[in-house]
Design a protein that fits this description.
Elements (H helix, E strand, L loop, with lengths): L26 H9 L33 E2 L10 E6 L17 E9 L5 H6 L1 E17 L6 E3 L4 E9 L7 E7 L9 E14 L7 E12 L8
Parallel strand pairs: 4-9
Antiparallel strand pairs: 1-9, 2-8, 3-7, 3-9, 4-5, 4-6, 4-8
């Protein structure tokens, strides 16, 4: 894993990396997700490469806290991200039925850090602050070779920032939001992206890790007024 290096350097120019940041999720990558969800490399910005270890996208959603996604940047992983699909009963909503008034509750669950044991947890970075981006995508399921495909480019439905605790225990976050895209057809499908903004530093390595991450979304039913 990446060792921590303490150094002092002089610099005169800081590139504005995020000024022209491209959207992480595209129509093309959504379609590739449906072709091979188990090894969807487009779901992460990077991964640590070590012989005999798998720190890839599937490790974050395998329901095994002893495995983890580990970003592969040279520093603390600031700006690195992971994307997963959101499950739930919202998936029956069709854009042609007019769904912009449907309020949706999203539940996000995260096991922060490398939770294999206390040693791996403390040795590596954990996420301290993150940006959460919810994408909505219109899908259609063809009954031929085309399979499930996105009809348009993903649209950012909701964005916020969260603070994570420095604990191996599972953490939960809840967001209420509405569909925003003016798509004319297709069934609603959601993805959530977590982007690392700040970290709790590891005692030995600079790798930032997340062991598990899952999300569900359900339509909030409106209560009928009682006469």
């Amino acid at each position: 894993m990446k060792k921590q290096i303490i150094s002092i350097c002089l610099f005169t120019f800081i590139p504005f990396v995020y000024a022209f940041e491209k959207q992480a999720l595209t129509r093309e990558t959504v379609n590739e997700h449906w072709e091979d969800i188990a090894f969807w490399e487009h779901g992460i910005s990077s991964k640590l490469i070590e012989q005999g270890y798998n720190y890839a996208w599937e490790s974050i959603r395998d329901k095994d806290s002893t495995t983890a996604w580990v970003e592969g940047s040279s520093g603390d992983g600031i700006g690195e991200w992971v994307i997963i699909p959101i499950k739930g009963n919202y998936q029956y909503l069709n854009y042609e039925d007019g769904i912009l008034d449907k309020e949706i509750n999203i539940q996000l669950k995260i096991n922060n850090g490398f939770c294999k044991n206390e040693i791996t947890y403390n040795n590596n970075n954990r996420v301290k602050k993150a940006k959460i981006t919810i994408y909505e995508v219109p899908l259609i399921a063809y009954e031929d070779y085309r399979g499930t495909q996105a009809l348009n480019e993903p649209f950012i439905m909701y964005e916020t920032e969260i603070m994570l605790k420095d604990t191996m225990d599972q953490q939960s976050f809840s967001f209420n939001c509405f569909p925003k895209a003016s798509f004319l057809e297709g069934r609603l499908y959601l993805y959530v992206q977590l982007t690392i903004l700040d970290v709790y530093h590891g005692e030995k390595y600079q790798d930032t890790c997340i062991s598990e991450m899952s999300a569900t979304a359900d339509v909030i039913k409106k209560q009928k007024n009682k006469k």
